[in-house]
Amino acid sequence: RSSTPTEVDAVVVGAGFSGLYLLWKLRKHGYTAVALDKGKEVGGTWHWNRYPGARCDVDSHDYSFGFDEGLEQEWEWSERYPSQPELQAYLAHVADRFDLRRDIRLETTVTEAHFDDDTKKWTVRTDAGDTYVAKFCLMAVGCLSVPKDVDVPGLENYTGPIYRTSSWPEEGVDFSGLRVAAIGTGSSGVQAIPEIAKQAGQLTVLQRTANFVIPARNHKLDPAYVADIKANYRERRLLSRSMPAGCIRDDNPKTAFEVSDDERRAEFEKRWEGGGIAFLGAYSDLMVDQKANDAVSDFIRSKIDEIVTDPDTADSLKPYGYPMGAKRPVVGTDWYETFNRDNVELVDLRKKELDGFTEKGMRLADGTDYEFDAIVLATGFDAFTGAFSTMDIRGRQGRSLNEAWSEGPKTHLGLGTAGFPNMFIIANVGSPSVLANMVTAIEQHVEWTVDTMDYMRDQDLETIEATAEAQEAWVETVEEIANMTLWPQGESGSWYRGANIEGKPQIFMPYAGGIVLYEETWNEVREAGFKGFVLQP
Ligand code: NA7
Measured from the CB, is residue 209 less than 6 Å from ligand 1? Predict the structure, then answer.
């Protein structure tokens, strides 16, 4: 590899869903681009999180690209919810089908991206020693791509193998007959633990905060159902784009207490049987009215009592202290059922204090010792800003992004940030991203980014940059909208507001207004001549 800088129109950081779509679109619009990714294969999130049971909780046909009808018709999703291997295969297929790989550099970590005030260009450097110079720096880095630092007391003493769900060994792990500890009961833990339990000799699950877990009811897809979707795919995509969640959900317009207790229970039952995140659409006020939220929370707690045979364990698995949804609700398979297995023990860290990990296992404050042959960490991510903070990003006058965001990330519409011209951020902080179908959120941003680049090319413009005022206002809007919901409530410590990381500035990061309102806002900004952005020749 040479150190002579390679000139392109755009450097794309990341080759997951966002990076791949960007590459496709940029090429189609006549731009030269290169995508740089740390992974050995494309796929981003779906490359790294290859732990057993890893699966998306948005329907396969919606969690996929809508930009090419040939791709849509050709690709066969086999299950209601796509598994990690299937998603990884899909994204690899996209890279091959559109010959994107010639512009992708894998196993390449971006170490720095610096804006030059004179040339108005970005210089991007990698750990491979390569340098790229580009007018645009496009951050397709994902919201959950940097794991949270390990903060489990004494874990450094433990000498056995430790596996993280977020960077699972490619060859897999054989837990047959082993004594395993699993820490973390968010989406990753809830998906991995039932699978590991099937293999392990003994599995000890350490739970700090109980989560609301809704059954996925994943299943193989019926060919007639698939044929029907494919026959009407355009309508489905348009409909998805017209729904706040960015995918089709049968949301009930009624509020929880305008119906009788019996009717409400029946509706919850019906949706529990149907499974998946559509459960949240049972009533329109579940996420805005505490009483409605209590009703759905009570329902889930009653289900835990029904499923889990040991009353103490059932009690420990019940979430309290925050509204359902304030922590991302989890969609899982056999989560509660797993605790009826003889080889699974739940250690409720709210009831039993952990003294710390030891060379061979762990010790509880009451003196109980455990020995483990392996430990699994599903302890979460430094969400949204994590990937940015690992790079040395400098904008005008050499100002660092970490410094600019020291009080929390600030963006205008999630797309750009003041002082960092021509740096676009794809579906991350300040956008519907994780609160909607991520792929729909990505499509919005990729389209707007490339449209803006086209506009700049047509108008002979050199830079676009968010204003400081606009981004202050947007941060406020994002916070205000979040405050209209129950999302920020309770002791949930959610990564939505950086609360899972000690010392991280706490602001609500994703935009809770949904895909449609967000698109309307962008359209207004665009029609008002990119209001809140400064464009310069
Ligand atoms: P999450 O949702 O952040 O979950 C992390 C889990 O790990 C959660 O249960 C945490 O408990 C637990 N945790 C973290 N640190 C510790 C320590 N030190 N001790 C005990 N338990 C700990 O991450 P996921 O990877 O599961 O999911 C992230 C997103 O990916 C998910 O929401 C989907 O969007 C896909 P806590 O709640 O902090 O008490």
Answer: yes
CA–centroid distance, 397 to ligand 1, in Å, is 38
Record the tokens describing residue 399, joined without a space. 């100002």
CB 337 within 8 A of CB 145: no
How many percent of the chain have pLDDT more than 90? 92
Instruction: Look at strands 361-364 and 354-357 and give their pairing.
Output: antiparallel
Name the residue of 158, 187, 207, 487 to mutate for ligand 1: max ligand atoms within 8 A of Cβ. Answer: 187
Task: Confirm or reject: Cβ of 208 under 6 Å from ligand 1.
Answer: yes
Residue pair 377/163 in contact (Cβ under 8 Å)? The answer is: yes
Instruction: Supply φ then ψ for residue 298, to 5 degrees.
Output: -60, -40
Atom 12 of ligand 1: nearest residue by CA position: 184
Sorted by sequence, the CB contacts under 8 Å of residue 249 that are 6+ apart come out as 243, 277, 278, 281
Sheet holding 361-364, edge to edge: 354-357, 361-364, 369-371
Cα separation, 2 vs 420, in Å, equals: 27
Cβ density class 296-329: b for 16+ within 10 Å, e for less? bbebbbebbeebbeeeebbbbbbbeebbbbbbbb
176: β partners: 200
| Protein residue with its CA nearest to atom 35 in ligand 1 | 187
CA distance 322 to 306: 22
Helix or strand (DSSP H, E) at 11: strand 6-13
Q: Ligand 1 centre and the CA of 427: distance in Å?
A: 21
Of all protein residues, the one whose alpha carbon is nearest to atom 20 of ligand 1 is 208
Give the residue, out of 500, 504, 506, 509, with the most ligand 1 atoms within 8 A of its beta carbon, to mutate for a pocket test: 500
Sign of CA dihedral 274, 60, 167, 392: negative
Q: What is the pLDDT of residues 203-226, one digit of tens each?
A: 999 999 999 999 999 999 999 999
User: Is residue 271 within a helix (H) or strand (E), and if so which, with residue range?
Assistant: helix 261-274
Residue in this structure with the two tokens 């509706």, named with its chain if needed: 267
Q: Is the C-beta atom of 386 inside 6 A of ligand 1?
A: no
CB of residue 155 inside a 6 A radius of ligand 1: no
Question: What is the pTM for the complete model shown?
Answer: 0.96
DSSP 8-state class, residue 56:
-
ipTM over the 0.95 cut-off? yes
